[in-house]
Amino acid sequence: MELVAVMKRALSPLYEEILQAYRNHLELLAVVGALYTAQKGLNVLCGCYRAIKFHISIRMFSKTFLARQYGGWAVVTGATDGIGKAYAEELASFGINIILISRNRDKLQTVSESIATTYGVKTSFIDADFNKGREVFPAIKEALKDVDVGILVNNAGVCYEYPQYVTDVPEDKIWEIINVNIAATTMMLHIVLPGMVQRKKGAIINVASASARIICPQLAIYGASKTYLDNLTEALYHEYSSKGIFIQSLTPVFVATNMIRPMCTFFKRTSILVPLAKDTAYKAVRTIGLCRRTTGSYSHSLQVRRSGSKVNNSGD
Ligand SMILES: NC(=O)c1ccc[n+]([C@@H]2O[C@H](COP(=O)([O-])OP(=O)(O)OC[C@H]3O[C@@H](n4cnc5c(N)ncnc54)[C@H](OP(=O)(O)O)[C@@H]3O)[C@@H](O)[C@H]2O)c1
Q1: Distance between CA atoms of 175 and 160, rounded to whole angstroms?
Q2: Which of 149, 189, 194, 308 keeps 20 to 30 A from 216, CA to CA?
Q3: Which of 103, 107, 182, 309 to mutate to test the pocket of ligand 1 (most atoms within 8 A of CB)?
Q4: Chief location of this protein (predicted)?
Q5: 195-234: per-residue pLDDT in tens?
């Protein structure tokens, strides 16, 4: 007890000193507090403004808006299935002519004809296997040389069939991810950007993934390839937005497509957590020009936020 009393007596001047210093700096602390609250308030207001602008724009979107804003032709890579096919159909529903790129000629022919008849737009296709690397791009460049590409959806992508440690991923799969997810996306925008810059308009959508924003053990190479895309997109935004080009990164979580089916039977069923590709494309197309990064669905935005993304400067 005596020890406590001695400690109290010894610490009392220190306590008084701290209290005095606190009183002296009270006003400064009040200013810091006010600035912090103001900054948080401003963030909330900006968020509300973005949300209102987003929803009004969705409702007021005229069907010819996209073509007028960016141009009448869109190129969609990986357009024969999943998210890419859904993008192609959604853009066609806005009256935009579509050039599809994928590997399989028969599938390209079928999807191309179906889009042309359903939406009454012009379509054509280029068959190219991005996994072949550099050799396929001169032909693509040649095929697109007289086309005023208004929108490029860089969608083609591959993943592992199931989660694996890096050392277990076959070499061929590693090169496929590098060739398709990284190299092809970069080359495609390298091909179409000069024309867009010349016309001072255009939009590029790079289909990344939530794995670009969340650390993904056992999908490390895939996740890293998508981080490349997401990072590239952000840098391109700064390089080209002043030249009239809109650049966007799409970062969905799980979408019910062939890509994720081998991983888990759970994903065969669609749910609020695992939307259909057409629902993702429906929402994503309506954010073109509005936000430079979107997951394409509210539930995915919540999932990415809940998991704590490694970067957070999105517009979604
Ligand atoms: N599904 C998801 O949960 C999810 C989530 C986040 C991000 N993503 C991303 O979304 C994009 C589309 O994925 P998805 O789920 O729609 O996949 P998907 O259903 O498997 O479709 C992939 C498309 O890419 C084409 N493709 C594949 N390899 C190609 C190659 N070597 N050369 C040219 N085209 C090739 C395929 O066409 P052919 O086979 O006919 O050639 C197909 O049209 C990918 O970039 C993926 O990483 C998907």
Answers
A1: 12
A2: 189
A3: 103
A4: endoplasmic reticulum
A5: 999 999 999 999 999 999 888 899 999 999 999 999 999 9
